[in-house]
Every structure is written in structure tokens, then in C-alpha cells.
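[Q] Does anyone have a clean C-alpha cell version of this?
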Amino acid sequence: MDDHKLSPEHKIKIHRVLLILFLVVVIFLFSQKIVLGNSVSYEVDFVNSSRFVRGPFPEGRVEPQSSSYLVKYEPVYFSAYSPRRFNRAKVRISYRQSADLKSQIGLKLDVNDWAFYFEPLPPTDHEVQVYETTFDLTRAELIRNQLKFVIAAPGIDNQGGWIEVYNLQIELLK
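[A] Here you go.
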């Protein structure tokens, strides 16, 4: 009648398998939330949001082109996942814009205030330009581990101006 009992060797094997499975699951879960290095980098995909970068939003403000994205209306927001507190965010944007447009890139500040810190994007003379700026994250809004960024160009929709974004990268730095 003891046919249903496991031998000690089988119990040890099952225990080891369960322990290894548990460790694999724990390591996987921590690897999704913990950044072991001093930085994390993201590339913004203006067509498909990912679990780490969301945007652009609101919908309908960006139109895909053959190798770029045309900002039709402003502002355009996007957010980046910050698995922990970082000190700085380095943002690199490859873009070109109409000559008369004064565009800027910004970081959302303070949770209780609708404030942004903006950096002006230099004129491009219709040529693709790479611009890099670093934001101090000390006062940045961080809700559910999301940092919010914006591309703004007052008057883009009623002046006939345009911004074409070829690439946008965010690197969070310790």
C-alpha cells in the first residue's frame, strides 16, 4: 500500500527542481526592475509603445514617414520607465524643422504643478541635426516609475511649420 510514497531520492530531485525554478523566476523578476549598471537607455518608437517607453500621446499628433516621424500638432508627450531613481537624463534627438519654427524639448517637473523644464532645439536650416541635452532629474515628476518628456513647438499647427524626428534616445544616468 506504500506504492504512492516517493523515495527520498525523488523527493530531493523534486525539491531541487522547484528550488531552481523559484530562483529562475526571482532572477527574471528582479532583472526586469533592477538595473545593475549606472545607466539605462531607451530608443523612442513613435509608432509602437513598449513597456519601457510610452508615446507619443495624445494620438494623432505624429505621422510616420518613410524614415522619420512628422510632428503635426503640439505638444507631443512620451514617457520613459525609470526602474529606480536616476540623477540625470541625457536626451539625443535627430531632427529637422522648418526655418521659422521655435521648437523645444522638455521634462515634466513637480507632481503638483503643470511645469516643464524646456531646452530650445536649435534651427536646422532644413538639414538633419543631432542635438543632445541633459536634464537634471532632481525635481522631475516620477509617477509609477515614469518620467514624462515633451516636444513642443508653439504655433506648429497654425503656422504651417513642421518638425521631422528621425531618432530619439533617452539615457538615464546615475
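[Q] Thanks! Anything notable?
[A] The chain has two domains: 2-32, 38-173.
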